[in-house]
Fold each of these.
Amino acid sequence: MHGIVFSELRKFVDHSLGPGAWQRLLKEAGLGNRIYMAIQEYPDQEAVALVQAAARITHKSPAVILEEFGQFIAPQLLQMYKALVQPNWKTLDLIENTEEVIHKVVRMKNPGARPAELKCQRISPGELLLVYASPRKMCALAKGIARGVANHFGERISVSETQCMLNGAPECHIRLRVM
Ligand code: HEM
């Protein structure tokens, strides 16, 4: 997983659990005094261990932690690649164009980065089916990012997952509707 994910996770943890919480989390995850640089790649397993440790500390499920983190990280992701965001885009347009316009450039600029491959079907102007399939099975992160993107555009969306890899489906189907 890209270092930017870890550096943002640290900000998220300090923001939601208070200063010092990151060191406690590293210990709880068995990662000692690990330091993450925003320009390097780190094992996915470390991200998973940190999310699981945060879940144990907060008594929330790992999926809830990932979704909250996705919501938190969205403004930062948008800021990093704002040059690629068209001025007329709103929430569903951005998500619909993430794969072709944004994740594609992320892969080119950071050869080690493997952002999820997203497929989208625009069902109507106000509704999008987001198809997520990644060996990381982090659909909760995708749902959180979608909510964070909606916050950024001042829109409210409903998010419902009609099938999920964590329940044995080959891919996750996430329906996003602007309310
Ligand atoms: C400006 C917009 C975006 C930027 C700059 C961005 C960038 C990134 C980066 C750098 C990663 C880490 C890749 C790695 O660790 O190897 C990532 C992963 C990911 N992105 Fe995006 N992203 C954006 C929008 C979105 C949106 C809108 C969604 C879905 C709604 C999304 C879903 C994901 C997921 C689920 C992952 C985790 C990797 C996986 O599940 O395999 N991203 N993205």
Note: DSSP finds six helices and four strands in the chain.
Amino acid sequence: MSDQLRSSLPYLSAPMAGVRRVAGWMLDVVIPAQCLGCDSIVDTPGALCASCWSTIRFIDHPYCDACGVPFDFDVGANALCPSCVRDRPEYERGRSAVVYDDGSRGLILGLKYGDRTDTVRAFARWLARAGNEVLADADVLVPVPLHWTRLFKRRYNQAALIAHALGKLSGVEVAPDLLVRSRRTPPLGNLGASQRLTTMRNVIAMHPRRRRELGNCRVVLIDDVHTTGSTLRSCSRTLLKAGAGAVDVLTVARTVHSVN
Ligand SMILES: [Zn+2]
Ligand SMILES: [Zn+2]
């Protein structure tokens, strides 16, 4: 990674980080930790109680080697799902920690729309586990960008929060503003594949000042949910065109339809 990109990474001074750590410790002592999913008291801050934990479906082998959709049964090493056989994504390895369903939806939407940023550290831990192979090869983590009007309204990009937490856990650097979204797009879930492609055309761009700084590195895109995959593919195309050596994808959750 270039020095210019490295120097753009956020920096927290050591004394301030110390103050924050002590304040966090004092809060932990005074206020008992609450489950991320309900009101139950738990031993550790940022954890789920046993009941909420049992509703989360963690994704493990076997899954599609390209997009990471879980298979109902093992179909051999490096197997691809029918969708990836027809049209392999531009990214190499897509991995997700949990299935996006009734068990995980509340937590995911809480971060996206409800200011529930206390889930971020748990999400990063889940991703560190699900994406350990991807992270071992990673040069830089890049969050999927929000359009600036959405960022203004929400005050944070949930993908960037996850990327920063995962960066801290894994030691991989984070480039929070490498990609930008040039216009707002409607939800893609109800559109057909070709409409999604047209809608996302030229929406994701490199930040004007970062355009020449990728230098063949291995980028890991970070997002909260993998639904249609169109935005992740659009980001991957932009990064590869800008000189990334390869792109992998890590999302906390993904939608799943039975694929075998
Ligand atoms: Zn709970
Ligand atoms: Zn697949």
Note: The longest strand covers residues 218-226.
